[in-house]
Specification:
alpha/beta; 8 helices; 225 residues; 32% helix; eight-stranded parallel β-barrel
């Protein structure tokens, strides 16, 4: 079962920061997941729609200027990193799962993955691009059909893994609160992997492994090494 550091080692350092990414790399993880939004012509690694929970800033991230976002403290003196800063730090040392947060992210992320392949030692096999915004996921897949995609859901779908198959996804990414044996089996019957978020307790990881889950996203990759 693959262990994926969720927003970096976010149980040990502020989420989605270079510090959290560095700690995950130090732990030797094979994959790191992060969230990407667009604001003022830049791709920012940040989860929430609003800034208040994770920074000393205020407002909706996508409405802010580049200078304002770059000035904020994201915890422990860390800044909100750009996607290119994170890519430069990782430099092809592990897989990178990129979650597209909302509209307008597919095209710039596609362009930046190409640049990272040319300049930073990544290959198309290093990426998995996922989203709850399924139209945006389709747009990305048109731009970079060779890159694996993940269809995200926060519910137990009425028709199992069918929606992920219809999206042409490589994996179905689902919430630990809703995953069950039937969904895992249905995903595998359709040729899909199934990844589960967010799993921080070893006992939950053991139960999911017994269920046949292919990987988990965890804030505490140190517990699963």
């Amino acid at each position: 079962m693959q262990i994926i550091a969720h927003r970096g080692a976010s149980g040990l350092a502020p989420e989605n920061t270079l510090k959290a990414i560095s700690l995950a790399l130090d732990l030797g993880v094979g994959a790191i997941e992060l969230d990407v939004q667009q604001a003022d012509g830049e791709l920012w690694v940040f989860h929430d729609r609003r800034l208040e929970r994770c920074t000393d800033g205020h407002g909706v991230l996508s409405h802010q200027s580049r200078d304002y976002l770059a000035s904020l403290d994201a915890g422990d003196g860390e800044r909100i990193p750009t996607l290119w800063q994170v890519m430069s730090l990782i430099a092809g040392r592990c897989e990178l799962h990129i979650e597209l947060k909302g509209a307008g992210t597919a095209e710039p992320v596609a362009a930046l993955t190409r640049r990272a392949e040319a300049e930073l030692g990544f290959t198309p096999a290093h990426w998995v691009v996922s989203s709850f915004h399924h139209p945006e996921l389709i747009r990305f897949k048109v731009l970079r059909p060779e890159i694996r995609t993940g269809a995200l859901t926060a519910s137990l779908p009425l028709h199992g893994a069918r929606f992920a198959e219809e999206l042409g996804a490589w994996t179905l990414n689902c919430d630990v609160d809703f995953v069950d044996q039937a969904l895992v089996a249905d995903a595998h019957r359709r040729g899909l992997k199934i990844l589960v978020y967010t799993v921080d307790e070893v006992s939950d990881g053991d139960a999911l492994a017994a269920m046949g889950v292919d990987g988990i996203f965890t804030n505490r990759p140190d517990r699963f090494s």
